[in-house]
Write a structure and sequence with these properties.
Elements lengths: L9 E10 L2 E11 L4 E5 L6 H9 L6 E6 L2 E4 L11 E4 L11 H5 L8 H14 L15 H13 L5 E5 L7 H18 L3 E5 L2 H7 L2 E6 L2 E6 L1 H6 L4 H7 L3 E4 H7 L10 E4 L4 E19 L4 E7 L6 E6 L10 E6 L4 E3 L2
Parallel strand pairs: 3-8, 3-9, 6-7, 7-8
Antiparallel strand pairs: 1-2, 1-4, 4-5, 9-10, 11-12, 12-17, 13-14, 13-16, 14-15
Length: 340
Amino acid sequence: MPNPQSDLALAVDNLSLSLSGKPILKQLVLELSRGESLCLLGPSGCGKTTVLKCIAGLLTPDTGSIVVNGRLVAGKQSIPPQQRNIGFIFQDYALFPHMTVAENIGYGLSKLSKSDKAYRINECLQLVDLAGFGDRYPHQLSGGQQQRVALARALAPKPSVLLMDEPFSNIDAQLKRQMMAELKSIFKKANVSCIFVTHAKGEAFAFADKIAVMLEGNIAQFGRPMQLINQPASVAVAEFMECGNVLTAEQAKVLFPRLELTQTGSWLFKPEWIDIDSTEYGVRVKNIEQIFNGREYFVDITIDNDQLQSVKMVSQHLLTVGAIEKLVFRYNNTPYLIKE
């Protein structure tokens, strides 16, 4: 069990939960440092939103403990949601349509005096760059402005931990980039400790300090984005994170016959480190698909081999597909052995 006196903003230990007899969370362990943004990243149905609801007190786990800011809130004792000092931003923001922006932000400040409440509301409006918007109603705001109001409302009571459920799913790509940059700046100013969930890897990479990859109700790997991409803990993580080509030693020999792999297991070959040459002595090619992302081409090469079907690589140039019958592959780095 986590030490209640630790300096962590949040510590979750051995958390398990079943719903209608189906295991949803399986002995999950998670830690959040103060001032850190942590992403729960995983496919739909992996249990990531359920984790948020357990932390917030909206669901009661079957086993395990949750410590928030050094205080046990779930485990041997269970503290109700309103006493946990946790902020929660829902996917649809859940603003009160009949209340002004100022009234929405002040909703959780009923214990403050009138003057202190007004001061805190104004402070939060300035924090999210909405000074002068206090008298407006939610329907008079853009989607990005509504999100900032939801953020201000969640931060107003000065929560120990802020939870966000798919915070960027309802806004377009350009606004998403802008909002992520704005929120990172706001969180840094306010020293916010935050957990957010998403299934979008790009959002996790752009926003989170650390990422917890969730697969089938548990944390499959925890670490910084570059660590997850370059050193996946399992084949399942590598495939979900789309780290690159995961090959057995036998499959790797098909592409890179001069490469000596002395250990059995699965090896990660990054697409950006693969080079090719067209030659009559190489591996026979069946098909090549290329997608341009504005900077480079993602290339998927289907090969004619019983042990290996395809290989992914990156190219700065469009390959002349019709002229390619056989390829020689080179790997210009050391492949990573996935140690499961």
